[in-house]
C-alpha cells in the first residue's frame, strides 16, 4: 500500500527533497479504515496516479493532501516542511481540480479564468484566450458556462492548467466526460508539466499514457 | 499527540470514571431533592402577597438560573472541540443542546404558570422572558444545525462555531432585551448577599433546590453523554466487550 | 419541627390556599421531566447495547459465510 | 519555476469584482431583495389594517422587520453557487487569508442586496404613513443596521452551505441573533419620535457594525473551512 | 418481456411515503417551518410594541403573515433535492400521470411543514394577546388556508426549480398570488370579531382549497415539464 | 451522420418494427445547429453507442428521445408509433439514467430502489438486496447515499438496470467514475440486456467492448 519513488528530475536543484511527501497517513470514515500507514513521496518531474476501486478513498486522500479535509492522522510535507507550517507557500504552488471543477456557471470561461488566475498570479487576457483556444473552446470564450456541455465545462478547468504557475497539480478524475481528443490533450499536458519539473497527483480509472508514470494503489 | 489522546484515551476514561461517580452523584441529588421539595412544599411560609404560589419559585428559579449556563457550557466545549479536537467535548456539547432546550422550556413553562397568577397573564413581552425565549430559539437552532449536517465531524465543528457565536450573542441579546423592556423580578432580588428583604426560611430551601437541580443537570448530562459515547465508540473493543457481556 | 408545617390538614395541603392548579402542575411537570430524563437514557443504553450485540452477531455470521465461500459476488 | 503570487489586496478586489459581475448577470439577485421588501411591506396594510393612523404607528417596526427578513432571505445566495460549482474550494485553497476573501464577498453581497433595500425604504415609509420626523432615523438606522444583518447572516450561511434547502434553517439560526439590531433600530426610531437625540443610538449601531466587521468574517471563514470539508 | 406497471394509486402512495420518509430523516425540515413561524411572530412585539392591547390589535394579521411567510419559505425544499439528484427526471419519466405524483408530493409537504404551523398557532395567538373570540377563526382559517398556500407555492417552486438560490424569487412570485388567501383569512377573523358568522368565510376558503387542489397540481406539473428541460 | 442498422434479434416476434426510430431530427442551441436530418433505428437486441466530441449534442439527443427536452423538430417512433401518442406505454418500457443519476442522497440505496421500482414495477426487497450485491454494494444497502463515493452512487443507479422491466435503456455516460470492475460489469449488463431482446442507447467516450455494437456519430 505504500510506494517509495526514486526517479529524479534533473531540471531542479532541490530535487532531492520530495515536493510532496506523506508520512503514516491514517483515515477512517464511518468506522471503516480507508487507509493506514500510507507513505509516499512525490518528486519534481513525477506523475503519480492514485488507483483503487470505487469507494477506496482516492477522493478523500486528495482532499486531505490539499487541506480540504482534516479527518486524518499523520503528516504531510511540502518540500520537506509540514504543510500546516507554511500553508501560504503551499497554496501559492498548488492547483487542485476536484469533482466540482470550480467553474461558475453564470460567468463566461474568460471571466472564470480571470478570477481564478488572480488568486494566484494574474495573467493577461491574451494568455487566457490562447489557453481557451488550446483546450478547444475557441468560440465559446464569451458564452456563459451553463450553456456548455459537461465536457466543455471540464475543459474550462483544464485551461487553468495552462495558465497557473503552480508546481503541484492535484487532479481528481480529470478525464471524466472528456472525449478522446480531450484525453490526449490532458495526457500531453501532464507530460509537459512533469518535464518542466512540476509534480502531478492524479486519480483516474482510465489507463494513463504517460511515460514514467508512478502508481499508488489504495484499498 | 493530542489527537491520539482525544481519540483513544478520553471517552473510555470518562465512561469508567463517570460510572464510578454516578451513584454518589445520584445519592447526593436525591437527598437534596427530597429535603428541598419537602421543605419547599411544607415548611416555607406563604408569601404575604403571593400566597402559596411562592412554592413555584423553588422549581422556577433553579431551572431559570441553570438554563443560562448552557450556552457558556456549549461554547467552552465547542472551543475544546475546535482547538484540541477532543471528541468527548463534542459529545458533551451534543447532549447539552437538547437538554438545555428542555431546561429552558421548563423555566419558561413554570414561569408562565407562576405568572398566570401573579401577573394575571401567562405571557408578557418582558425583557427577561423574551431573552429566555430567544435563547430557546438559539438552542433549537443549534440542534437543528446538528441534525441538518449529515457528516458527524462537520456537524460537531459547525455546532461548535455556532455555540461560540451564540454564546456571545446570548449576552448581547440579554443586554439589549433588558434595555428594551423589563418588568420581571430584577436579578438578585433573592441573592444571597442581599438577604434583608427575604428571611432565611425562604432562601435557604431555594439554595438547596438550586443545588439539587444542578446535580440533576449533571446526572442527566452524564447519562446522556455516556450513551453518546457508546454510540460513537461502538467499534472500539471495550464497547464491543461491554455489549457482549450485557 | 412539625409545628413549622404550614398546612393544618392534608386537604389544606392539596388545596394550596387556592393555588392548587398552579403549584401542583409545576411540581407535576417537574416530576415528570425528572423521571423521563433519568429513564430515557437508561432505556436508551439498554437499547444501544442490544443493537450493538445484534450487529456483532451479524458481522460474525457474515464473516463465517464469506470464509465458507457461500457468497455470491458477480 | 517559482510562483509569484498576487497581493491579498488584488485578490480582494478581484473577488469583489467577480461577485458584483455575477450579480450583474443574475439581475434577479439584485431585484428580488427589494421586491421582497416591497411585497412584505404591502402585506401589512392588507393583513392588519389599511387605516393610515394605525399603519403609521406600526410603520417603523414593519419597515425594520421587512428589512430584516429581506436581508436574511437574500443571504441564501451568498455562498451557494460557489459551493456547488467548486469555486468555494478554490477560494479556500488560495494563498490569501480567507478573512479578506469572505469580507469581499460580504461587501459585494450587501452592495447588491442590502443597499437597494435601504434606498427604497423612504418610499415604503411613505406608503406606510410613517411620521415625517422618523424618516431620517429609519433611513440611517437601516443604512448602518443592514450590513450588520448581512455579516451575521453570512455566518449562518457559511454553517449551512452544504445543505440543499436552507432558507428556513438559516432564518432559524440567524433571526434570533439579529434581534439586538432590530431592537437598536426600532428603539432609535421610537425615541427620536419622542424627541431624544438620534446620535446615541447610531453610535450603538455603529459599534455593533464595527464589532461584527471585525469578528463575523472570522466566524464565517472558520465555518466555511468546516462545511466545505 | 413486456412491462407490467404498477397502478397509479400504488405509485402515488409510494411517492407520498418516500417524501414522508425523507422528511423523517431530515427532521429539521419538520421543525424549522414552525420554529420560523414562532421566531417571526416574536419579532413583532420586539419591533412594534410589547404592549398587550396594541399587540392584540395586530395579532390576527401577524399570525397570518407569519404563516404565509413560513409556508412560502418551506416550499423551497419541495422539489429542490429531487431536481438536483435527478429523481425529478425519473418522476417525469414514470408512466403515471404527473398530476398525481405532484399531488402526492404536495400533500406530503403540507403534512410535514404546514400542519405543525397550524397546530402551534393557538399558542402564538395567546402570546400575541389575540382576542378570545378570534381563536377558532384563526385556527380554522389557517387550517384551510395553508394547504392553499402550499399548492400555490408549489407552482412557484416548479417554475424556479433550476435556479440555485431561489428563496427570494419564489417569494416574489408566490406572495402576490397568495394575497387573496391572506385577505380571505384575515377578513374572516376580523368579521368574526365583529360578530359575523364564520361559516361564510370558511366556505370561501374551502372553495379556494378545492379549486387549487384541482388546478394547482396541473400547473405545477406543466411547470416542471418546462423547467426540467 | 445517419446510420441505418439492419441486424435483427430473433428473440422477439415484433423485431421487424424497430423499437425506437428517429426521423429527420433537427436541433439547434444558441443558433448552432447540433444535428439535422438525423435518422436512426434501434432494433430489439441492439446496443447503439452515440459518439461525438464534447459539445456535439449527445446529451441533448438523449434527452430529446426521452421527452425531457422538446426543443427539436422531427419525429420519434416507439415500436412504429409516434411517442407522443402513446407516452404511457413508452414510459412504462423506458429506463433513463442521465448525468444526474436519480439517487436521493438522504435515502439509503435500498429505499431509493424501492421507490424507483414502484414507479414502474414493484419488486421484492430480496430482489433489491440481490441487485445491490451484484453491483458490488453489499454492506452499503442501508447507508445513506451521501456517504457513498461518486462511483458507488453511480453503482446504485446501475442496480436499477437489474430490477427494471424496461426494454429500452437510455444511458448518458454511465461509465464515468466507475472503476474497471464496474466497467466490466456494466458492459456485461448491456450485453445481457441485448441478448434478452432489449435495446440500449448509450453515450460514452470509452471504447465499449460489446459484440454487435452499432455506432452513431454526431458533430
Ligand atoms: C414565562 C415566564 C418567566 C420566565 C421565562 C422567567 C425567566 C427567568 C429567568 C431567566 C430568571 C433568571 C434566573 C437567574 O438569573 O438566576 C428568572 C428568575 C426569577 N424569576 Fe422568572 N421568569 C418567568 C416568570 C416569572 C414570574 C411570573 C415570577 C414571579 C413573579 C418570576 C420570578 C422570578 C424570581 C423571583 C427570580 C429570581 C431572581 C433572582 O434571584 O435573580 N418569574 N426567571
Ligand atoms: N442550456 C443550454 N443553453 C444553450 N446551449 C446549450 C445548453 N446546453 C447545452 N448547450 C449547447 O448544446 C451543445 C451540446 O451539448 P450537449 O450537452 O448535448 O453535449 P454532449 O455531446 O453531451 O457533450 P459532452 O460529451 O461534453 O457531454 C453544446 O455545444 C452546448 O453549448
Ligand atoms: N461524507 C461521508 N461520510 C461518510 N463516509 C464517506 C463520506 N464520503 C465518503 N465516504 C466513504 O469514504 C469512502 C471513500 O470515498 P471516496 O469518495 O474517497 O472514494 P473514491 O476512491 O474517490 O471512489 P470513486 O472512485 O467512486 O470516486 C467511501 O467508501 C465512502 O463510503
Ligand atoms: Mg472519487
Ligand atoms: Mg453530455
**Integer tally of domains of chain B:** 1
| Molecular shape of chain B | flat
Over the alpha carbons, how many angstroms does the gyration radius of chain D reach? 19 Å
Biggest interface, residues from each chain? D-E, 44 and 45 residues
Strand content of chain B: under 5%
Question: Based on helices, strands and strand pairing, what is the structural class of chain D?
Answer: mainly alpha
Order of helices and strands of chain B: HHHHHHHH
What is the tally of helical segments of chain B? 8
How far from one another are the termini of chain D?
30 Å
Number of domains of chain D: 1
The largest sheet of chain B is: none
Element order, helices and strands of chain D?
Answer: HHHHHHHHHH
Describe the structure.
The complex is a heterohexamer, with two copies of chain A (219 residues), one copy of chain B (246 residues), one copy of chain C (74 residues) and two copies of chain D (229 residues). Helices cover 31% and strands 24% of the residues of chain A. Chain A is an alpha/beta fold. Chain A is globular. With 246 residues, chain B is mainly alpha-helical. Chain B has one domain. Chain B contains eight helices and no strands. In chain B, helix 4 (87-118) runs parallel beside helix 6. The chains are: A alpha/beta (219), B mainly alpha (246), C mainly alpha (74), D mainly alpha (229). Chains in contact: A-B, A-D, A-F, B-C, B-D, B-E, C-F, D-E, E-F. The structure holds protoporphyrin IX containing FE (HEM), adenosine-5'-triphosphate (2 copies) and magnesium ion (2 copies). One adenosine-5'-triphosphate sits between chains F (29-30, 34, 52, 54-60) and A (146-152, 177, 179).
Amino acid at each position: 500500500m505504500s510506494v517509495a519513488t526514486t526517479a529524479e528530475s534533473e531540471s531542479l536543484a532541490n530535487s532531492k527533497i520530495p515536493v510532496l511527501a506523506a508520512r503514516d497517513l491514517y483515515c477512517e470514515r464511518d468506522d471503516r479504515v480507508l487507509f493506514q500507514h500510507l507513505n509516499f513521496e512525490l518528486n519534481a518531474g513525477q506523475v503519480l496516479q492514485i488507483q483503487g476501486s470505487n469507494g477506496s478513498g482516492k477522493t478523500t486522500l486528495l482532499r486531505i493532501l490539499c487541506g480540504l479535509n482534516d479527518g486524518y492522522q499523520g503528516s504531510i510535507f511540502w518540500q520537506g516542511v509540514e504543510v500546516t507550517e507554511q500553508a501560504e507557500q503551499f497554496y501559492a504552488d498548488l492547483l487542485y481540480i476536484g469533482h466540482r471543477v470550480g467553474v461558475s456557471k453564470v460567468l463566461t470561461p474568460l471571466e472564470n479564468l480571470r478570477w481564478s488566475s488572480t488568486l494566484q498570479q494574474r495573467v493577461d487576457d491574451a494568455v487566457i484566450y490562447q489557453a481557451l483556444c488550446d483546450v478547444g473552446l475557441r468560440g465559446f470564450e464569451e458564452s456563459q458556462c451553463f450553456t456548455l456541455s459537461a465536457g466543455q465545462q471540464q475543459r474550462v478547468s483544464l485551461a487553468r492548467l495552462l495558465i497557473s504557475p503552480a508546481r503541484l497539480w492535484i487532479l481528481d478524475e480529470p478525464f471524466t466526460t472528456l472525449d478522446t481528443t480531450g484525453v490526449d490533450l490532458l495526457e500531453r499536458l501532464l507530460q509537459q508539466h512533469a518535464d518542466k519539473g512540476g509534480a502531478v497527483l492524479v486519480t483516474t480509472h482510465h489507463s494513463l499514457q504517460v511515460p514514467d508514470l508512478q502508481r499508488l494503489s489504495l484499498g | 499527540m493530542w489527537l491520539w489522546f482525544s481519540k483513544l484515551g478520553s471517552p473510555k476514561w470518562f465512561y469508567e470514571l463517570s460510572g464510578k461517580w454516578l451513584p454518589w452523584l445520584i445519592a447526593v441529588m436525591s437527598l437534596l431533592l427530597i429535603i428541598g421539595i419537602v421543605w419547599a412544599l411544607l415548611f416555607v411560609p406563604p408569601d404575604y402577597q403571593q400566597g402559596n404560589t411562592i412554592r413555584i419559585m423553588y422549581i422556577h428559579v433553579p431551572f431559570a438560573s441553570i438554563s443560562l449556563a448552557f450556552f457558556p457550557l456549549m461554547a467552552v466545549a465547542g472551543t475544546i472541540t475546535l482547538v484540541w479536537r477532543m471528541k468527548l467535548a463534542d459529545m458533551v456539547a451534543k447532549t447539552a443542546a437538547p437538554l438545555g432546550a428542555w431546561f429552558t422550556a421548563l423555566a419558561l413553562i413554570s414561569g408562565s404558570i407562576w405568572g398566570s397568577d401573579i401577573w394575571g397573564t401567562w405571557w408578557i413581552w418582558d425583557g427577561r422572558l423574551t431573552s429566555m425565549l430567544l435563547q430557546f430559539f438559539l438552542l433549537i437552532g443549534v440542534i437543528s444545525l446538528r441534525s441538518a449536517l449529515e457528516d458527524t465531524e462537520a456537524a460537531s465543528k459547525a455546532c461548535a462555531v455556532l455555540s461560540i457565536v451564540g454564546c456571545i450573542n446570548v449576552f448581547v441579546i440579554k443586554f439589549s432585551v433588558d434595555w428594551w423592556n423589563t418588568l420581571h423580578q430584577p436579578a438578585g432580588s433573592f441573592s444571597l448577599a442581599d438577604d434583608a428583604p427575604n428571611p432565611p426560611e425562604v432562601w435557604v430551601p431555594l439554595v438547596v433546590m438550586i443545588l439539587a437541580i444542578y446535580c440533576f443537570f449533571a446526572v442527566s448530562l452524564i447519562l446522556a453523554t455516556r450513551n453518546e459515547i457508546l454510540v460513537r465508540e461502538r467499534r472500539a473493543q471495550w464497547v464491543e466487550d461491554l455489549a457482549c457481556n450485557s | 419541627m412539625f409545628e413549622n408545617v404550614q398546612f393544618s390538614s392534608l386537604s389544606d395541603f392539596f388545596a394550596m390556599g387556592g393555588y392548587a392548579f398552579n403549584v401542583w402542575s409545576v411540581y407535576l411537570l417537574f416530576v415528570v421531566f425528572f423521571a423521563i430524563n433519568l429513564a430515557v437514557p437508561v432505556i436508551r443504553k439498554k437499547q444501544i447495547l442490544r443493537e450493538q450485540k445484534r450487529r456483532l452477531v451479524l458481522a460474525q455470521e457474515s464473516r463465517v459465510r464469506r470464509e465458507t465461500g457461500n457468497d455470491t459476488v458477480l | 519555476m517559482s510562483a509569484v503570487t498576487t497581493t491579498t489586496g488584488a485578490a480582494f478586489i478581484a473577488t469583489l469584482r467577480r461577485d458584483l459581475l455575477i450579480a450583474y448577470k443574475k439581475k434577479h439577485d439584485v431585484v428580488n431583495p427589494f421586491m421582497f421588501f416591497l411585497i412584505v411591506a404591502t402585506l401589512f396594510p392588507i393583513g392588519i389594517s389599511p387605516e393610515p393612523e394605525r399603519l403609521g404607528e406600526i410603520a417603523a417596526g414593519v419597515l425594520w422587520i421587512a428589512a430584516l427578513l429581506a436581508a436574511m432571505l437574500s443571504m441564501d445566495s451568498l455562498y451557494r453557487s460557489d459551493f456547488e460549482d467548486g469555486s468555494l474550494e478554490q477560494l479556500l485553497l488560495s494563498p490569501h487569508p480567507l478573512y479578506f476573501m469572505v469580507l469581499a464577498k460580504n461587501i459585494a453581497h450587501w452592495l447588491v442586496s442590502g443597499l437597494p433595500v435601504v434606498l427604497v425604504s423612504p418610499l415604503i415609509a411613505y406608503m406606510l404613513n410613517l411620521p415625517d420626523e422618523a424618516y431620517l432615523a429609519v433611513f440611517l438606522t437601516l443604512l448602518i443596521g443592514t450590513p450588520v444583518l448581512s455579516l451575521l447572516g453570512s455566518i449562518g450561511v457559511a454553517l449551512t452551505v452544504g445543505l440543499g434547502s436552507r432558507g428556513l434553517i438559516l432564518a432559524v439560526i440567524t433571526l434570533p441573533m439579529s434581534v439586538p439590531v432590530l431592537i437598536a433600530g426600532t428603539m432609535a426610531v421610537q425615541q427620536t419620535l419622542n424627541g431624544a437625540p438620534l446620535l446615541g443610538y447610531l453610535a450603538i449601531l455603529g459599534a455593533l457594525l464595527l464589532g461584527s466587521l471585525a469578528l463575523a468574517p472570522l466566524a464565517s471563514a472558520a465555518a466555511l473551512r468546516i462545511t466545505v470539508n
